[in-house]
Specification:
With about 220 residues, this protein is α/β, with parallel strands linked by helices. The protein is built from eight helices and twelve strands. About 40% of the residues lie in helices and about 20% in strands. The chain has a five-stranded parallel β-sheet with strand order 2-1-3-4-5, with helices on both faces. It has a four-stranded antiparallel β-sheet with strand order 6-7-8-9, with helices on one face. Strands 10-12-11 form a three-stranded antiparallel β-sheet. Mean pLDDT is about 85; it is low at about 120-125.
Length: about 220
C-alpha cells in the first residue's frame, strides 16, 4: 500500500487513482495528522510525501518518521518544489530515499515509486547473512543487529552498510556511493553521503567505527579486531 500525502485534493486524488490503475493499493492524506493516524492502522510499503503541507512541513514529518522505530524503515519519496535544490538536499539529508520535483507527470511518479520498491525487494530476497565481529546483517529478513540488539536503519543507510560489508577494504568515493546507492547522480551533493554515513555510524554504536573515512577520497569498511 502506498500513502500519498498531498494537501491539494485534486492532485492527491489523481495520484491515488493513477497508482490504483497500475495495480497498487493507495490512499491519500491531506496533512501530517492524517498520515500518522493512517500509520496507526496500517504500515505502507512506501510514502509519497509533499514538503508543503498545512499543519506541518514534510521535512519535519520525515524526521519524525525516521526517529520512530515503527516507521524508520518505510521508504519515503519527497515531492519538492521544482528547481528547489535546498528542499532536495534537505530531504535527502533527512533520510528521504528519493525525491521528485513538482509539477511531475504521473508516469514519472509511478516509475520512481517502482524503482524504490524494486530496490527494497531485491534486498529482501537475497537469502544471505553477513557477520563481521558483533555486527550481523540478515539480507533475507532485511535486519541489522549489533551485539544481538536490533538496529533500525533507513533504506539508504541499509544499502550503504551492505555495500561496505560486501566489499570489505574497498574504498568508495562519495560520487561512486551517490551513483550506486541513490541510483543516479546528484551532482555536487556529496554532503548527502556524509550525513548518511554519520547517522549510520551513530546507530551502529561501536561497530560504526569499522567505517573509516579516507581523507580526500571517501569511505571503506575494515574489521579493526
Amino acid at each position: 500500500m502506498i500513502i500519498c500525502v498531498e494537501d491539494e485534493q485534486n492532485i492527491c486524488e489523481l495520484e491515488v487513482y493513477t497508482l490504483q490503475s497500475v495495480g497498487f493499493e493507495a490512499k491519500g492524506c491531506g496533512s501530517g495528522k492524517e498520515l500518522f493516524a493512517e500509520l496507526e492502522r496500517d504500515i505502507p510499503e512506501l510514502i509519497l510525501l509533499d514538503i508543503m503541507l498545512p499543519d506541518e512541513d514534510g521535512l519535519s514529518l520525515l524526521r519524525k518518521l525516521r526517529s520512530d522505530r515503527r516507521y524508520a524503515s518505510i521508504p519515503v519519496i519527497m515531492a519538492t518544489a521544482k528547481g528547489s535544490e535546498f528542499d532536495k538536499v534537505k530531504g535527502l539529508d533527512s533520510g528521504a530515499d528519493d525525491y521528485i520535483a513538482k509539477p511531475f507527470g504521473m508516469l514519472e511518479m509511478v516509475s520512481r515509486i517502482k524503482a524504490v520498491l524494486r530496490r527494497c525487494g531485491q534486498e529482501k530476497h537475497t537469502g544471505e547473512m553477513i557477520t563481521v565481529d558483533n555486527l550481523t546483517v540478515n539480507l533475507s529478513e532485511h535486519t541489522v543487529t549489533v551485539g544481538g540488539e536490533n538496529i533500525i536503519l533507513t533504506l539508504k543507510e541499509y544499502e550503504l552498510l551492505k555495500k561496505f560489508l560486501t566489499n570489505p577494504g574497498i574504498v568508495f568515493s562519495r560520487d561512486k556511493l551517490l551513483n550506486d546507492i541513490w541510483g543516479y547522480e546528484f551532482s555536487g551533493e556529496t554532503r548527502t553521503v556524509d550525513v548518511h554515513i554519520r547517522t549510520l555510524r551513530q546507530k551502529l554504536g561501536g561497530a560504526g567505527e569499522m567505517i573509516e573515512t579516507i581523507r580526500g577520497v571517501g569511505y571503506r569498511m575494515v574489521n579493526k579486531k
